[in-house]
Amino acid sequence: MQGHRASQIPRLSETAVRLSRCFRFARLMLVGVALALASACGEDDSPTKPAGGDNPSGPRDTAIPLGQGMGSSVYALGSHGGQIVAGGGFRYDLVSGDELNGVALWDGTDWQRMGGGLPGGVEALIEFGGALYAGGYFSASDGASLDYMARWNGTVWERDARPNGPVFAFAAEPGRLVAGGDFTQLGRSASRVAIREDGIWRPLGDGFDALVSALTFYRGEIYAGGSFTNSGQREVPYLGRWDAGSGNWERLGGGIDGPIYALAVYRDRLIAGGNFTQAGSSTVANIAQWDGSEWLPMGLGLGDQVLSLTVVGDCLYATGLFRSGEESTSPFIARWDGTSWSSVGAGFDLSIFCSFEHEGSLIVGGSFTQSGNTTVRRIAMIHPTCP
């Protein structure tokens, strides 16, 4: 999912080791987390193909490398034509040395370049209308101007509207594509969120006063999360529901008291992850569920910020900056089965920024380079076990 990432973590001490300017979580929070993102690209015995292949019958709950991985952080995951696509701050393929420039397609054996790439950083990916859309901090590809958002037609990246600021999140359903970020123009005036219908981008009401980092559809309606607190003159703290009838963004229940970085739908409930301790009348820990009428906790929650949420099978997977939560002891990743949290394999050595479901497997991307004794440079596949 977007992820992702959708969400931006402030650049304090970690910026000394993180050279890419496109880390989409960078401006929201003050965190004392050192994300050691320096490349560790020496030779080793890591396989150039997933040990379990692309078949979910491989090892369960074990991180499997996808080739040699990436030389810098992965912030976005998606698919196109049934193949995994990764976006981020990486530049070169670690095997061939070819320039990937922030986006690459996994063909089952190797990472392939996609045209001239999207230099500057990719923060969001989604497939819509047969094309792959990308959002981020990039401004061009192969000399063509593509400010902050681009569409892959199978051969080259091309322009689709022209936001005046970065795009951090997408959500789609048949006929509707929604984009969120830190822009005030997208086709026309649009404050941090806009919708594409019938080939035309238009604003959604007054939008928001600060960036949008997560989007989803729930029960046919659009939900947006981020660092905003208002929509026009209306108080809509951190999470809003688009009321198409009134043309306004509405708050949910008593609202949430901190930024939202990830949204998902699980068992007909809206799941919100981020950096907050209160949702409506419930005391929570960085994650909560909305049942359509009230906010409810999810066990004891998770110990630090949640950056991505993805459903695989009948379980929900959360990733982020946390190292533990309830019964989960796998750093940076945890599984929710509807009742409690549990571990997913050995976890990882550094943060996971994004996750995505692909043919029954969980794909994760981030700054990590190790899972247990396995080298997995910033992207990995997991064939998960769901109780």
Labels describing this entry:
single chain, 387 residues, mainly beta, 4-stranded antiparallel β-sheet, 38 strands, disordered N terminus
Q: Hey, roughly how much beta strand do the residues contain?
A: 35-45%
Q: Structural class, from secondary structure content?
A: mainly beta
Our Rg estimate from Cα atoms comes to 19 Å
Count of helical stretches: 0
Question: What is the 3D shape?
Answer: globular
- Output mean pLDDT: 87
Q: Can you list the strand order of the major beta sheet?
A: 1-38-35-34
Task: Count the E strands.
Answer: 38
> Which residues form runs of ≥5 with pLDDT under 50?
3-7, 9-55
Helix coverage percent: under 10%
Distance between the termini: 22 Å
Largest sheet: 4 strands, antiparallel
